[in-house]
Amino acid sequence: MVMKKPILVNTDLEIAGAVTWVGRSSMEIQLEVTQFSQDTPEPSESVALVANFTFVGRDAKTGKSAPVSQILPETGQEKLLWEEAEERNKMRKRNKADKQMNIDNEDKERLNALLAEGRIFCDMPALADRDSILIQDTCHGNSLICQPQQRNIHGRIFGGFLMRKAFELAFSTAYAFAGAAPRFIEVDHVDFFRPVDVGNFLRFKSYVLYTELENPARPLINVEVIAHVTRPELRTSEVSNKFYFTFTIRPEAMKDGFNIRNVVPATEFEAKRVLERMDAESSRLAEP
C-alpha cells in the first residue's frame, strides 16, 4: 500500500479495483485511489494511493485451499499488471523458503555487523553512540477488548479496524521516536495469521525496527506492529497480525540541526527481524 501524494479531506475520492492475477487458489487485487484537483488535471498525476491485496480461496467446510476462477489479461496494461503480480507471488514463495533455511546458511557477517553496536549498549552503555538507540527502547503498546460493532459480515473482527489501530500505534511510535510529526509513506506488508473474534483480548506492540538515513532531508523510519490474541485464563498469547509501516519527517521539521537516531538490535532475534525486513524491502524495490 503506497501513498503517492497527500490526500485532501475536502475533495472527493474515487476508488477502483480489479483482479490482476490468479493462481490455483490465490488471487491478487489492485486498488487505486484517485483524487482530481485543479493542480493535477492529468489522470496519471491524480493517483493518490495504490494497494495490492492477496486473497486465498478456502473451502467453507474443510477450511482447505479451494480453486478460484481464472482470468485472461488482454490489454498491454493488464499484461503488465499480471507480470508484476506474478513476480510478487514468486518473491513471497522465495521469502517463505528462505525463512525455512537453517541459520548456518544466513549471512553471518551482516548479522554480526548489526549486533556489534547493540553489544556495546548492553555491555558498555557509557561508551555507546549517543546518536543510536536500542530497538527495545522504542517500544510502545496498547490493549483492547474487541467489540461487536467492529465485526465484519463473517462475525470476525474487521481487518480494516485492526489496520487502523496498528497504524495509529505506529504513527505514535514514530512521533515519540523522532520528536517531530511524522509523514506516512507506505504500508510495507501486512500478515493475517489468524482471525480475531468478538470479545478477544488484543494486545499491540510497536517498535522502530530500523532507520534509513542516507538522505538527511528525507530520513525513513520503519515501524513494526505485532498484534497478539491473549487468553489469560489459558495462559496463552498467539500472534494474529504483523504490520510494517514506513514514515518520514516533514521537510519543515528538518532544520536547526534536527537529526534522527540510528536504531540497533540488542539480540540475534531482533537482528534477524531487521535483516528480513531490509531484504524484503530491497526485493520490492527491485520489482519491475
Order of helices and strands: EEEEHHEEHEEEEEH
Low-confidence stretches: none
Instruction: List how many beta strands DSSP finds.
Output: 11
Distance between the termini: 16 Å
**β-sheet strand percentage:** 25-35%
For the largest beta-sheet, the strand count, sense and barrel status come to: 5 strands, antiparallel
Widest sheet: strand ordering: 6-8-9-10-7
Q: Radius of gyration over alpha carbons?
A: 21 Å
Helix content: 25-40%
Structural class: alpha+beta
Shape: globular
Mean residue pLDDT: 87
Number of helices in the DSSP assignment: 4
Family: Belongs to the acyl coenzyme A hydrolase family.
Organism: Dipteronia sinensis
Keywords: Hydrolase, Repeat, Transit peptide
Protein name: HotDog ACOT-type domain-containing protein
General description of the model:
With 288 residues, the chain is an alpha+beta fold. Helix content is 27%, strand content 32%. The longest helix has 24 residues, at 76-99. The chain is globular and about 60 Å long.
